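My main concern about presentation is that the manuscript never shows what a single data entry looks like. The format is easy to grasp once an entry is in front of the reader. For illustration, here is how one protein appears when written out as sequence plus structure tokens:
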Amino acid sequence: MRIVSGKHRGRQLIAPPGRALRPTSDRVRESMFNILTQGGEALGGRNWIQGAHVLDGFAGTGAMGLEALSRGAAHVTLIDNQEIALRCCRENVEMLHEEDNADVYYADCLKPKTASQPCSLIFLDPPYHLGLAVPALKALENAGWVAANALITLEVERTDETETPPEFTLLDARQYGKAKILFLQK
């Protein structure tokens, strides 16, 4: 696993051996970030990453948030509730020398602490088949993590029938292998 583009392009990221985590593949991450940087008609034709305050929920290795930092995000918060994931996040932040631009927190996305600042770009990639995406999004919104007009990417299993909460608009949906990526806006 590596950073695909930006100032840290090509840098390897630490991931635990085995199947403890299910990181988003480099190919899917590259496709998602191309959509986020170029905007496209569905996303209003703007770069959602440049200067963004990013939340990477269910962070795993932190690859999504760190990719955003590499491509020009101002700050990233990585949260997870697995110690192995937090170790990977911390090591990857240190390895990229991004300690000033990244926070790593032990937290449950279903019961998050109150945000110190809302985020304009949010990545949520919960474990598949547990129905956590929408409850986590609502919990994060209630805790102040979701800025007005924020863009949210939800990665769910391709066959998952995730319903968009009424306070969000589905802008786009893409499928990559077993994954489905939903782009929502508050």
